[in-house]
Amino acid sequence: MIEDSVKIHDNFSLEIKSIYENISKRKKTKYDTITYLFIPNGLNINNQTYSNSKFYNDVKVYIRYNASEYLLEEIINLKTGPLNLFIKSVKRIVKEKSSKKNRLDFESKVKMLGAILNNSLKLKAKYFKSQKQSDLQLSDQDFFIQLKEILQIYRTQIPLIENSILDENVKNIIKLGDEYLSNISNYYAIQLLEHFKKLSTEKSDLKISIQFIKEEQEYRKIQNFDASRDDDYFDEILLYKRSQLKKYIEGVLFLNRDIRKDGAFVEQSVFAIAAGLAMIFSTGIAFYYQQVYGNFTLPFFIALVVGYMFKDRIKSSIGQLFISKASSFFYDYKIKIKDHENNLIGITKENFAFVPFEKLGPKVKRNRVKNGYLDADYDFYGEQIIQYKRKIEIYPKKFGQEISDNRLKSLVDITRINFYRFVAQMDDPKKSYSILKKGKIINRVGNRIYHINVVQKFYTEKGIEFKRYRVIMNRKGIKRIETIALDML
Fold first, then answer.
1. Is 91 within 8 Å of 43 (Cβ atoms)?
2. At a CB cut-off of 8 Å and minimum separation 6, what does 156 contact?
3. How far apart are alpha carbons 293 and 290 in whole angstroms?
4. What does the alpha-carbon distance between residue 400 and residue 396 come to, in Å, rounded to a whole number?
5. What are the pLDDT digits (tens) for 398-423?
6. Pairing of strands 344-354, 333-338
7. What pTM, to 2 d.p., does this model score?
8. Rounded distance between C-alpha atoms, residue 370 and residue 383, angstroms
9. Closest listed residue to residue 167, CA positions, set 223, 224, 106
10. pLDDT tens digit string along 179-226?
11. If DSSP codes are grouped into helix, strand and coil, which group holds residue 315?
């Protein structure tokens, strides 16, 4: 099963997030995806100006575990839940020797608790925003009571670590975890407060959320989480610190990527065979003319030169032929996905190419012209089409083993495509035009925009699925993304 979403990451970057479930506990799970980018010809993006290396330089890929889903009451009560596993790791590292294994386990449990709570709060906030005002009052109170209990239980463990003989690096881990939990709790509490206010919720019903935010901000002040000696740089330092902390805690979910060129062994073997064939041809000519004219004669010398010329061309031609045909059999890169203990979690392959419209499948063509502004959009203006293929295989044996979370069942693939190179040939973002209104000519200024259409093709266990998006942008960056509804094919 694939869950997919597309959103704006920054002014020039498109973020495609795909969630791949590890369906089988015994056999590897396979997924294939193809993303087509339809780019107007006027942007001068083609196979002469936009090479393979430029594309991969503009694409950034992150692969991580998808944090498990827990209800807040499950985090509190489950004996095998992340909070209780954290408490057990505290007892273990305090009572037993501070071995490397215990330290890594303790750090992992702190990070996992933070990552899971963040996911739980995100899902809970999403749930609240989908509910009517009348349904929020009781669940709202339970939410903040449970969240406070989780924070209090975590914070009761801090003195046990601080009063132990553990080194400062270990003591700092639990403090960083505390700051992260405070960050995300404060963030989602403020989000919900803003949402409740938009619903014109009574002030009395907002009291519990306001009280929670005030208490948490006071705690942060006491712990010196947000303090800065230089007020002029407060926001800068605060945001940087929170960004680094987020990477540190949620890094427990991220996986390593070992990137290799796909088909490298076959490629080198073909080049070696090509060199051998060329050498056979060259040597054969040399032997033949040596027998006919003998050594150290002008005809023999000319034959050697000609043989060498053909040898070089034969080797080069076979190599070029292989490269031109290799994309049909091999991908550009083969990436091994490994966890922090170097266990192989899966393999993904990537391939980039420009393809002509005529070679697209009929369903891709149909989805491209669906809801187009012009029926002859392609014929009138022309487009360059980038095809970005991904193959993903997930191996079940080592999946999630190093972080001991039995609810872990999926990977998140985050692909960011930067369009900054695309804006070089765009016109100014504002363009003047004139209209006639009540007998007078009125000059106006409008937005000059470009459309980059995205069609995605997914091969899943349910069959082939399609999605389409329209990226609307100008020289200043991406303005918005529109989802295009497709017919059931």
1. no
2. none
3. 5
4. 9
5. 777 777 677 888 888 999 999 999 99
6. antiparallel
7. 0.79
8. 16
9. 106
10. 999 999 988 888 888 887 777 666 666 788 888 889 988 898 888 887
11. helix
